[in-house]
Amino acid sequence: MPANKLLLSSSPHFFSQATTKKVMLAVIIALMPSTIYGIYLFGAHALFLVLSCVAASVLSEWLFRLVTKQALSIGDFSAVVTGLLLALVLPPSTPIWMAILGAFMAIVVAKEFFGGLGQNPFNPALIGRAFLLMSFPAAMTTWQKPLAGAIDATSAATPLNMIKQGVDMKDVIASVGAHDMGGFYWQLFLGNRAGSIGETSILLVTLGGLFLLGLGVIRFVIPLAVLASTAFFAFCFGMDPLFAILSGGVVFGAFFMATDYSSSPMTTKGQILYGIGIGLIIVLIRKLGGFPEGVTYAILVMNMLSPFLDKLRARKYGFVAPKKPAPQAAAKGDSK
Known about the structure:
The protein has 336 residues and is mainly alpha-helical. Helix content is 60%, strand content 0%. The protein has two domains: 18-156 and 194-208, no CATH class; 218-312, no CATH class. Helix 1 runs antiparallel to helix 2 (44-67), helix 3 (78-88) packs parallel to helix 5 (124-135) and helix 10 (202-215) runs parallel beside helix 13.
């Protein structure tokens, strides 16, 4: 037989050096600056929350696969990433037992029940957060003042909460220690404010996202579509576009949640529409809904639509040639 014989095989036909373990390690590295800063801002309880979520996620996956007699997969670090992401979108005052329950829901219900890594139609960490938000709304909307630069660690409202409650803008600006809008935007960008553990510093979240973009772990299409559409629709609804981007978890969601491989579209056209839909729903919830924030539900709703968006093909391969008239039909036409 010739040495260069033609081999036929099923997909995939292209391979890269990137493995699941390498991708997950890259995500963990990208999240470290936000994680460390969140622990610095909110103290020891934030550290215990992070450790509890990661440990509960890994343990839940290990026990589930052990009971169901499946191959153990904790070595790919996907459970670590899910636990870390869940911890970073929780309020720093969340009880430990509640965080563990959310991690169980994220891993077992949102991931393993659907077949494990790569089979989940929804982002597992956001399913865990959504479950906690529906089950324990008071705990999930109780915020803590940053320890760094603050007198104490008493409860505080986030800028988004204050705007939703109709608080005067001067008081909202003063809540982060600023004196004018420029200083207010700067404080939001740096992150010295009340909020979820890993979402406060837009600077560090963006650096982590750019790190993933540089490695090719994620593409720029979804984050850009989410951020641009959020700003655009905020402007259309008479809201401050810059505040809409810098407040809440929009940037964190755009880089780390919306880009989840298995729950986002694969085609460029689908990813653009996916990001636009997320931005629109975020603004609608903030403007018209009962919650001051809408990132979690916006991404989950668009996760549900991802399979349909993938059917919108930007290019068709091949074409159907126009049918030529039969010779008899042509002859009859000529005779007339």
